[in-house]
Amino acid sequence: MTVRTCAAAAAILASAGCGASSTEPDATDPKKLPPINVRAGSMKAGFGTIERLVEAAKREGQLNVIGLPRDWVNYGEVIDTFADKFDIKVNELEPGASSRRELEAAPKLRPDVFDLTLDVAVAQAGKFAPYKVAGWQDLPDPIKDPAGNWYAAYGGYMSIGYDPRAVKPPATFADLLKPGYRVALDGDPLRSASAFDGVLAASLRNGVPQASQGVDLFARLKQEGRLTDLTKANAIVAWDYLNAARSAHQSDAWQVTIPRDAPLGDYRVQAINKDAPHPAAARLWQEFLFSDDGQNLLQKGFARPARGEAMLMRGSLDAEQAAKLPKAPGPPVLVTIPQADAAKAYVKEEWSKRVG
Predict the structure, then answer these.
(1) Do 110 and 182 lie in a common domain?
(2) Tens digit of pLDDT for each residue in 263-320?
(3) Where does residue 329 fall: left (phi above 0), alpha (psi -120 to 50 degrees), or beta otherwise?
(4) Residue 262 needs a FRET pair 20 to 30 A away by CA distance; which of 62, 96, 160, 287 works?
(5) What is the C-alpha separation between 76 and 282, in angstroms, rounded?
(6) Taking all residues of the chain, what is their mean pLDDT, rounded to a whole number?
(7) Which residues pair with 92 in a beta bridge?
(8) Helix, strand, or coil here: 171?
(9) Which domain holds residue 149?
(10) Based on the domain organization, do 247 and 165 belong to the same domain?
(11) Cα separation, 57 vs 62, whole angstroms
């Protein structure tokens, strides 16, 4: 991702939390409908109408998803709604799989669709079947592959969730070094993309990642005995949709802030397995996920919908739920893939030695 596309995507992410006129095509003359092609690159080319896509997906009867925890951005309700709406069985494979694990396991487990970090999707684009959803024009160019190999469905900001009964609201990552904070990352940064991004956010200086600064902060917390696990922490560094979900369940005991000096943002992208065993169901899943209903269900899980700006303009975005998203201090910083790779190399080299 270039600096220019990062800047453009940042503006979109900021506005999405606050169309193509529809996510379904107009009715088509039955005599002019194309032959059904379950591996086509768009609904129009392969099916002609959403109804024909639904029929083809129902004939397959199943969909294999991977790496979708049910408590992550409301995926439990998304999956159940899809299954009930279309009468298709959804097989949930390895819900806790990382992006890299999703692709490693694909030859054996045969998922139909993926939910991935951007860097993994870009590097592995050859493993995906190009497909452009009906709402393609609503997706900003910087967050979709021009060929349709991958496309962002939702995004978020790195945040600090905290217990207001135990500590004062942290305005910056440096505040976590003040007395009283017991801090946790959302996993091990050597294995978890979310935890690594927490270190990356703490490393930002004037919008530029300096990995040593992030490792320094957590090394100091470790030395002082205040870097702990999730169950013992009164401050958790995680994506805002994860911290906001915690807050929704215990609002008096958990609040969320996005540090004003380090508003790191990122997107999760979708892709169809080139070897999908249920290719029509895979395409229907993407159409559902990017429909107004699907995007609003993701927002219900406190994610920021990729089509959010267009939906807001048309009045189809759930404004009440949008108002519940953690307040952003401004457009996010979106690091480039080379910047992220350099930070990963540093963390891999230093984390075990300095933090353990």
Answers:
(1) no
(2) 999 999 999 999 999 999 999 999 999 999 999 999 999 999 999 999 999 999 999 9
(3) alpha
(4) 96
(5) 17
(6) 92
(7) 65
(8) coil
(9) 20-155+270-322
(10) yes
(11) 8
